[in-house]
């Protein structure tokens, strides 16, 4: 044995048992306390590296990297350079408020997540010894395990590290968190393992951190701990997150606006220089026009909508949104890919049917199987029933007490069956019951070749329907005829079938998602028939069932893709995104981490392994999948309000800019003073804060919502031009009201009239261009209607006040309000007709 400070050579668990123990500088007796302490100091604790969360100030600075926030900062700097301190101050204040709101929301989500981080906890049974004396088992914290430790595993234990089996008896483990395969996997302590033809997780001599012992017991040597385990490797496999749908949308809209803003100041300067002989004195006005085109409130509105939606989800539905933009992505999701095991199902079998040899329902088969289970648990002194035994006992109720148990042989993965011998009351014979794999049970039955073929065909048909099959046989024999394990010439009693227990709210959640226009695809490591059966049990009829190796991507209808590796899931998700879909992924295992990262939004249930929770964007705090539907609706509320704000402000701003450019060419003075532009923008921006509190109409929530840059460009072009026409009509009305075109030389009157008309048209646009709203749905004004009314009142009452006079505004002539009412009436009619036509052409 090496010294206390010796470092063991790396081991992967392959090779002979002796080779592995030597490479780890260990032995069947385990390590001494001194050796374990030295190795712990060298290798570190057996914990998965935690994901570092950014500090609050770093979150604020990260918000500045948002492309639109960067544009606003550039405009603020440009405003400061031309001594327009008012616009610069306002823009910087808006940027600061946005960054603080976003950082606060994400920091709150991180605090909620801290309560859920329980990656690997508890203790493990380890063989340790002092410098002298024999080894003895002791409980040590999982974090203190080191390579070379010899541990013991029993039913219900979590495998605390990657281990190589030294001895095993009837061992099966659940690896669903690693592979997605719901059925337990048999493991054995083979001395010379074969190749990796079944993949790493299929190697029978290895068990991995994150799996759980279903049946049996084992002694194993630890080969990898901490960051070197396969469990921890999922962090590295997942990789960095790509831009989400929200990121892509904001980038696209930002670049469209940047192009407009870069063109606006040069156009204003050149036009005024060429036609009016003005020079750089128009630069503040040109900057004000560019600022007027900018939706300054976008960062604040976006962050407020998302933060409010995330707070409501956490309070009402116990859903934690870790990354605020993920709430928008939830609203835009049109495809949801889900893992089966642990999400749609509970990774727990339940009895489906009990069948006689002819395939007819027969409750006696279930009763005898349950009697066998009850006495096997009693006689074999098993610490706990496995999942199938629990399902049998739950389905059959109280059975077996009327018999006397004589002997039992528990299930053995190599023999693939279990035997119980009972004696009924007053009988001189014994009843032998055997249950297990169909082929192995039939080997013990007195059946002709034709009968055997029929029984196998029945089992195959049931298995093809996606259920697990257990065969049951019984026989009578004289007392103490032979050992239980040698029972022969039995009578085939029938089959008991099992299917995965569905998650309690999964069916309702799938119905809700389908009703919201979301297509659900199931990506699982399970058998195709098993996955398809689970979907049908939940009311989701898949249009296609395929293997992950089949070419092509899932179509527009629900699809089951089976035998998926972690790489397959991530590849399918990436392919759906490349095809233009906004993709969500719901998973809970280590094998889902890569797909959670690849999706636009990753969703995990509360019971997910820590790696999956860290990779996800949204955590369902309660074991209620209907929360997904609530989260999608909340996302659509938020993104619908953001879309309403963008439609209203961009179309109105574009119309104002076009009108300003035209007025700058027609008038001998600036069409609006920079201070007036600033106050008008402040009033409009303050009113639009109401969009963060709005409730879109139900019709807007029935389909995915997203921020599509080119759709917005098309919309604002149409309605911005219409707004510019209304402004030009106001110029004509103003000329009539002032008794002739020459009267337009009255600078203060023109400024006052246009200021009032701008605020009134903006109030109209706020009400009429909200997402999904019709008059039939607008019976109550709501926050947006109230804000629009206040905006209209300011437009009418501000010019004749002292504040208006300070801004260069004056009282309007009596005839102007009447003529303006006519213009606004025609503008309202044009808006309604244009909106109806646009909705028909672009539903």
Provide a brief overview of the structure.
It contains 27 helices and 22 strands. The protein is α/β, with parallel strands linked by helices and 843 residues long.
CATH superfamily of the largest domain: Calcium-transporting ATPase, transmembrane domain
Name of the CATH first level of the largest domain: Mainly Alpha
What portion of residues is helical? 40-55%
Number of domains: 4
- Continuous helix count: 27
CATH architecture of the largest domain, by name, is Up-down Bundle
Q: Roughly how many Å apart are the termini?
A: 76 Å
What gyration radius follows from the Cα positions, in whole Å? 36 Å
Helix vs. strand class: alpha/beta
Largest sheet: 8 strands, mixed
> What spatial form do the alpha-carbon principal axes imply?
elongated
The percent range for strand residues is 15-25%
Whole-number mean pLDDT: 79
Short key terms for the protein model shown above:
843 residues; elongated; Calcium-transporting ATPase, transmembrane domain; 27 helices; single chain; 48% helix; 8-stranded mixed sheet; alpha/beta; Calcium-transporting ATPase, cytoplasmic transduction domain A; 4 domains; Rossmann fold; disordered N terminus
Describe this structure in words.
It is a single chain. With 843 residues, the protein is α/β, with parallel strands linked by helices. The protein folds into 4 domains: 17-43 and 121-157 and 162-224, Calcium-transporting ATPase, cytoplasmic transduction domain A (Distorted Sandwich); 245-318 and 630-841, Up-down Bundle (Calcium-transporting ATPase, transmembrane domain), CATH 1.20.1110.10; 330-346 and 504-625, 3-Layer(aba) Sandwich (Rossmann fold); 350-501, Calcium-transporting ATPase, cytoplasmic domain N. Helices cover 48% and strands 16% of the residues. Strands 1, 2, 3, 4, 5, 6, 7 and 8 form an 8-stranded mixed sheet that branches. Strands 9-22-21-20-10-17-19-18 form an 8-stranded mixed sheet, sandwiched between helices. Strand 21, helix 20 (610-615) and strand 22 (618-620) form a beta-alpha-beta unit. Helix 22 runs antiparallel to helix 25. It is elongated.
């Amino acid at each position: 044995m090496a010294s206390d400070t010796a470092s063991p050579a790396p081991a992967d668990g392959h090779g002979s048992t002796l080779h592995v123990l030597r490479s780890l500088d260990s032995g069947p007796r385990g390590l001494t306390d001194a050796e374990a302490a030295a190795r712990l100091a060298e290798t570190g604790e057996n914990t998965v590296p935690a994901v570092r969360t950014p500090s609050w100030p770093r979150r604020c600075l990260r918000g500045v990297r948002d492309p639109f926030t960067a544009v606003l900062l550039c405009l603020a700097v440009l405003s400061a350079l031309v001594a327009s301190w008012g616009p610069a101050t306002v823009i910087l204040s808006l940027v600061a408020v946005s960054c603080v709101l976003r950082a606060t929301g994400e920091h709150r989500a991180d605090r909620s997540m801290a309560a859920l981080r329980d990656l690997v906890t508890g203790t493990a049974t380890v063989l340790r010894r002092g410098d002298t004396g024999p080894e003895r088992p002791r409980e040590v914290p999982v974090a203190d395990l080191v390579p070379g430790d010899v541990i013991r595993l029993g039913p219900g234990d979590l495998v605390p590290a990657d281990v190589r089996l030294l001895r095993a008896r009837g061992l099966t483990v659940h690896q669903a968190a690693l592979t997605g395969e719901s059925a337990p996997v048999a493991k054995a302590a083979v001395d010379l393992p074969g190749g990796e033809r079944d993949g790493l997780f299929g190697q029978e001599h290895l068990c991995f951190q994150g799996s759980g012992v279903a049946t049996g017991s084992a002694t194993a040597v630890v080969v990898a701990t901490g960051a070197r385990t396969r469990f921890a490797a999922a962090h590295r496999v997942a990789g960095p997150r790509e831009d989400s749908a929200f990121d892509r949308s904001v980038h696209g809209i930002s670049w469209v606006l940047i192009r407009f803003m870069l063109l606006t100041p040069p156009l204003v300067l050149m036009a005024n220089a060429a036609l009016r002989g003005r020079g750089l004195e128009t630069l503040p006005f040109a900057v004000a026009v560019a600022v007027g085109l900018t939706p300054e409130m976008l960062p604040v509105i976006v962050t407020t909508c998302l933060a409010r939606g995330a707070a409501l989800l956490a309070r009402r539905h116990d859903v934690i949104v870790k990354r605020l933009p993920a709430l928008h992505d939830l609203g835009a999701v049109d495809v949801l890919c889900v893992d089966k095991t642990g999400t749609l199902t509970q990774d727990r079998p339940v009895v489906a049917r009990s069948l006689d040899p002819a395939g007819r329902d027969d409750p006696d088969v279930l009763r005898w199987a349950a009697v066998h289970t009850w006495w096997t648990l009693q006689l074999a002194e098993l610490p706990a029933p496995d999942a199938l035994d629990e399902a049998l006992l739950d389905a059959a109720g109280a059975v077996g007490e009327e018999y006397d148990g004589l002997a039992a042989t528990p299930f053995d993965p190599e023999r693939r069956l279990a035997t119980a011998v009972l004696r009924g009351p007053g009988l001189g014979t014994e009843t032998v019951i055997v249950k297990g794999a169909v082929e192995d049970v039939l080997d013990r039955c007195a059946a002709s070749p034709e009968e055997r073929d029929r029984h196998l065909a029945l089992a195959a048909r049931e298995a093809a329907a996606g259920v697990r099959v257990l065969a049951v046989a019984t026989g009578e024999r004289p007392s103490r005829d032979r050992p239980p394990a040698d029972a022969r010439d039995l009578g085939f009693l029938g089959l008991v079938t099992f299917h995965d227990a569905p998650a309690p709210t999964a069916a309702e959640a799938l119905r809700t998602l389908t009703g919201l226009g979301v297509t659900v695809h199931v990506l699982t490591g399970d058998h195709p028939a098993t996955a398809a059966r689970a979907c049908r049990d939940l009311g989701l009829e898949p249009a296609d069932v395929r293997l992950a190796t089949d070419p092509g991507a899932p179509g527009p209808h629900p699809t089951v893709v089976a035998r998926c590796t972690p790489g397959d899931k991530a590849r399918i998700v990436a392919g759906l995104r490349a095809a233009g879909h906004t993709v969500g992924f719901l998973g809970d295992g280590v094998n889902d981490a890569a797909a959670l990262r690849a999706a636009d939004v990753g969703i995990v249930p509360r019971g997910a392994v820590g790696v999956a929770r860290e990779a996800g964007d949204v955590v369902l705090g309660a074991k209620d999948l209907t929360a997904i539907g609530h989260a999608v609706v909340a996302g659509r509320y938020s993104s619908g309000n953001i879309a309403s704000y963008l439609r209203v402000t961009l179309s109105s701003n574009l119309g104002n800019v076009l009108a300003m450019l035209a007025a700058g060419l027609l008038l001998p003075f600036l069409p609006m003073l920079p201070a007036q532009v600033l106050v008008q923008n402040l009033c409009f921006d303050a009113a639009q804060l109401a969009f963060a509190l709005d409730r879109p109409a139900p019709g807007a929530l029935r389909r995915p919502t997203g921020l599509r840059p080119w759709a917005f460009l098309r919309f604002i072009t149409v309605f911005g031009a219409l707004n510019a026409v209304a402004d030009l009509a106001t110029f004509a009305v103003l000329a009539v009201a002032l008794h002739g075109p020459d009267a337009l030389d009255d600078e203060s009157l023109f400024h006052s009239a246009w200021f009032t008309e701008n605020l009134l048209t903006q109030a109209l646009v706020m009400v009429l261009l909200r997402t999904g709203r019709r008059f039939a749905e607008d019976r109550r004004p709501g926050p947006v209607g109230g804000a629009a009314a206040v905006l209209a009142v300011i437009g009418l009452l501000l010019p004749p006040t002292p504040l208006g006079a300070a801004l260069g505004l004056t009282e309007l002539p009596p005839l102007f309000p009447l003529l303006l009412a006519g213009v606004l009436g025609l503008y309202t009619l044009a808006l309604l007709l244009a909106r109806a036509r646009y909705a028909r052409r672009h539903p």
